[in-house]
Each structure stands twice: as structure tokens, then as C-alpha cells.
């Protein structure tokens, strides 16, 4: 009887060892596979909210981008005329700086609108568009009227009127940017609004000093 029980005990021990080994391998595989899955899931959940945040926008963001593109285009049109016509090198340098700064901002806002699936051209019936439109006025004139007046001037008279109209133009941009800061939600658009307020207020101060020196 003793000779028969020893092989049986040995076989039982061997079977137990194989079972434990198999369980350990399965646990290791589960840990390695489960860890990768957890990391992948975590990576997906951390990137998706950021992407959604960049694309999130409301009507105020859309109106701001559409109308500020038009506003910037008007400033560049005036500035380019000043580069050709200004009597003062100081005024000419200011005009060059305005054109160089606002061109890239137009490209930036255009890319937002395209990414949001919105029209680049302003839509008059959009909520908030009428409020933004008030920032387009310059001393009671629209863009066409301002350009027509500047085209008739030369020398110091041109420089003086250009500065007066560009100050009014910048004040309109600040008004539009303040409205965006109050009602917009897109982070990039809000950041640009902050930058416009800061940069154009600084240029207004500079132009006011130029007017005093003429």
C-alpha cells in the first residue's frame, strides 16, 4: 500500500504545481494587458475634452470673428494707403505695423470659422451681429466714406485725418473685443479679444501723441 500511495501523492503535487504556474501566467498577462488598456483609455479621455474645448463656440464667437475680419480688412486698407501717402515717416511706420499685425489675425480668425463649420462672411441675421456692427463706425462714416475722404488729402492734412480716423477705428475694435469678452466662450477667441484691447489701446495712445506733435 505504501508503494502505491507515493506515486499518487507525487502526481497530485505535480498537478498542483502546474495549476499554480498557469494561474500565475494568466495573472501576469492580465496585468500587462490590463495596464495597457487602462493607459490607452486614460490617453483618450485626456485629449478629447481639450479638442472639444478648442471647437466649442457660440454665436458671439462667430459674430466676433466674422466682423473683426471685416474690421481688420478696413484697417489694412487705410494703413496701406498711409504707407503710400503719409507725409511723416512716423505715421508711415505706424501704418506698416498695423498692416503687419492684423493680417495674421485675419488668417487666424478665418481658420477658426472654417474649423467651426461657420461662414467666413458675416450673416446679418445672426444674434449679436448688430451689436458688433456698431464698432464699424468711424466719426459717423463707414469704410467707404473714410477711404474717399483720405483719398482727397495729402501732406500733413492726410496724416492728421488718418490718425483721427484710425483712432476711431481702433476704438470700434476695442468695443467689439469688449463685447466678445463679455459674451464669447471660445478660449482662443477670448484670448484674441484680450490682445486686441491691449494692443490697440496702446496704439491709440501713440497716435494721440502723434496728433499733438503735428
TrEMBL record:
Q: Which residues form the signal peptide?
A: 1-22
Superkingdom, natural source = Bacteria
Q: Name one Pfam family in it.
A: DUF305
Name the UniProt key words of this record, in alphabetical order. Answer: Signal
State where composition is biased (Low complexity): 37-47
Give the region (Disordered) as residue ranges: 28-57
Q: Where is the DUF305 domain?
A: 61-211
Which PANTHER family does the entry mention? SLL0788 PROTEIN
Q: What is this protein called?
A: Uncharacterized protein (DUF305 family)
* Higher taxonomy: Bacteria, Bacillati, Actinomycetota, Actinomycetes, Micrococcales
